[in-house]
Each structure stands twice: as structure tokens, then as C-alpha cells.
Design goal:
- The protein is an alpha/beta fold and 336 residues long.
- The chain has 13 helices and eleven strands.
- The longest helix has 17 residues, at 44-60.
- The two termini are 38 Å apart.
Length: 336
């Protein structure tokens, strides 16, 4: 299988391909070749997709190839999977901002999330970390907010694209504190992180799996986690809310999707194998080390499907979405 920016999974005649979501047959004839999965380069989906795909491949007895497709907050990869053959060989690994928020923010997407993609199941929930380059004179969130207030607009933050989790996280910070930060959107979280490490941008609010390696290497400084509770991976790192920004809470979820029209028995098999993969003690431990709290979705996928069907569900990406996001989610319009 191969994966692209949104994480795609595809199986070819000689084996399964994983494109962003794990794919598997359910008693239907199965080829022996590799599968393909599409994922965004170097970002959250990339890190988690590779972990899950490895274990899933073992369970399926098929090889899986990851195909990276970045850009447009993951919607490019989603569009590729949405138009793929619904044969169970192409799967999408996507996050809450791409699957739940983007459809309400952008009016001209080349696919309809609700009609062109079907949910297989969730992988888990993920916290993000507020990161700054070591040259930034801020060791705590209190320091950072004071700096942003003293230099309105002078500090820039990077994101994987407008409307993505990094962007939403920073907008939420701006809304709750009244500070001004300059947004620098990139074609994916990976390129943004490269520039943060290089000092080309000053800060990011990055999902934990892709933030941890740079943090442990001392290339960036971590100030706080974005969820309402501290992370078991970084128990000494405070939450943003603990630092005095009480309403701040940003949680991301990840899930697998297949093209609409994929046979129900195939979706059922994929859901079963995904659950088996996530329930494996070694997989749960490996994901936990990356800051991912696993969520095994029931076979009917009712929980994930309901999240995707309404603007209110889309807002679950950020418990208290910034006003500009609420406005567009409520009206169903694309931002100017």
C-alpha cells in the first residue's frame, strides 16, 4: 500500500496498499501484493499512520506502502481517496480538521466528505504542544503571552495550512488572550517544523507525535500541552489552561476512511482488523509513547459518523472554537 498527504492506503494486484487508512478484504478475493496508504509528509498522520500500518500489515498478512501527499490541510489526499476505486485497496488516514472542519470552511472542495468517503473507525485522540524556537525569550506560556503582547504581530507561527489544527490552535490562543501573531501557512506540517527548527519561524502548536522528536533533541522548546489534562508522556508539562488561559482546550482525533461504495463487508473487515490492531498491548503502548490515546470505534462507526455530519461535530476539534471558525461553521461558508 502507498500513502499520500492525507494518508492513503491502496492494495495493488500483487498486494494491499495503504493510503491514509488501513485497507483489507473481508472474505473477498485478496491479492498478494503490497497495499498503499497516503499520508501528509512528516506530520501527525505520517507518524501515526506508519505505526498503525506496520501492525495492521502483520495482522492482514500483506505489505503496506505509505504514500505521502501533502498540502491544502490534507484535503488533496482526501480528494484522491474519494475518487479511488471502492475496492478496499485504497484507504485514507485523516484527522479531525481535515475530515470534520475543512468541509465546513471551504466551499469548493473537489469532494464531499459526507458523500464520497465512508468512515472505517477512529485511531485515537492526540494532544498538541505549544513549541517555540530556542531563540525565543519565553520559557513558559506566561512568558510567551507577555512577549506577544509586547510585540504585536512581530512573532510568527507556522502551520500545515489554513484551517488545520496548528492554525486553529494559534487562532484559539489569539482569541482567548487578545494577542496578535502572524500566520505563516505551509504545504504540510513537516515543512513548517523544518523551518521552526531552523529558526525561520518562531512558534508552532504541533501535534505531539511529530513534536516529540524535535523536543527531545533540544531543537525546540515545549511550553504547554493543549488538552484539558496533562499528558502521561510529559507529566511535568502544564496544560495551556493551567497557565491562566482557562478556556483553552484543543484535542485532535485521527481516523480511517474508504471511498464511498466500498462493500459493507469490506468496511466491516477493515473495522475489525483496525480494532484488533489498536487493542494489541504493544500497539497501545507504542501509540501511548507518541501521546496518542487509542479509541476503538464500534463496528457500525456510529460515533465517528455522527461527528462528521454536523457543524457542531466539527467544532469538537476545538472545544471552544475561535469566533471566525464558529461563524463559518454555522453558515457553512468558506472564509474570505
Amino acid at each position: 500500500m502507498q500513502a499520500r498527504n492525507a494518508h492513503l492506503v491502496r492494495r495493488d494486484p500483487s498486494g494491499p496498499y495503504l493510503r491514509s487508512c488501513p485497507g483489507a478484504d473481508d472474505g473477498v478475493s485478496q491479492s498478494s501484493g503490497p497495499g498503499r496508504r497516503t499520508v501528509p509528509t512528516g506530520g501527525l498522520n505520517d507518524v501515526v499512520a506508519r505505526l498503525v500500518a506496520q501492525k495492521l500489515a502483520e495482522n492482514l498478512g500483506q505489505s503496506i506502502l505509505i504514500e505521502n501527499r501533502g498540502g491544502a490541510t490534507g484535503t488533496i489526499g482526501s480528494g484522491i481517496v474519494a475518487k479511488a476505486q471502492p475496492d478496499g485497496y485504497t484507504i485514507l488516514s485523516s484527522g479531525s480538521t481535515t475530515a470534520a472542519v475543512a468541509p465546513h470552511l471551504y466551499a469548493n472542495l473537489p469532494y464531499d466528505q459526507a458523500k464520497d468517503l465512508v468512515a472505517i473507525g477512529r485511531i485515537g485522540a492526540v494532544a498538541s504542544i505549544v513549541l517555540v524556537h530556542p531563540s525565543v525569550p519565553a520559557n513558559t506560556m506566561t512568558d510567551l503571552v507577555a512577549l506577544l503582547r509586547a510585540k504585536p504581530g512581530a512573532i510568527n507561527f507556522g502551520s500545515g495550512g489554513s484551517g488545520g489544527s496548528q492554525h486553529i490552535g494559534a487562532e484559539l490562543l489569539k482569541t482567548l488572550t487578545g494577542v496578535s501573531i502572524t500566520h505563516v501557512p505551509y504545504k504540510g506540517g513537516g515543512p513548517a517544523m523544518i523551518d521552526l527548527v531552523a529558526g525561520q519561524i518562531s512558534m508552532m502548536i504541533e501535534p505531539m507525535p511529530s513534536a516529540l522528536p524535535q523536543m527531545h533533541a533540544g531543537k525546540v522548546r515545549a511550553l504547554a500541552v493543549t488538552t484539558s489534562r496533562r499528558s502521561g508522556v510529559l507529566p511535568d508539562l502544564p496544560t495551556v489552561a493551567e497557565t491562566g488561559i482557562a478556556a483553552y482546550d484543543l484535542t485532535i482525533w485521527l481516523g480511517f476512511f474508504a471511498p464511498a461504495g466500498t462493500p459493507r463487508e469490506v468496511i466491516g473487515k477493515l473495522n475489525t482488523e483496525l480494532a484488533r490492531t489498536l487493542n494489541a498491548p504493544d500497539m497501545r503502548e507504542r501509540l501511548a509513547q507518541q501521546g496518542v490515546e487509542t479509541i476503538v470505534t464500534p463496528r457500525k462507526n456510529s460515533a465517528l459518523t455522527s461527528i462528521l455530519k454536523s457543524p457542531a461535530g466539527a467544532r469538537s476539534c476545538a472545544t471552544r472554537a475561535p469566533n471566525w471558525i464558529k461563524e463559518y461553521l454555522n453558515k457553512g461558508l468558506a472564509p474570505a
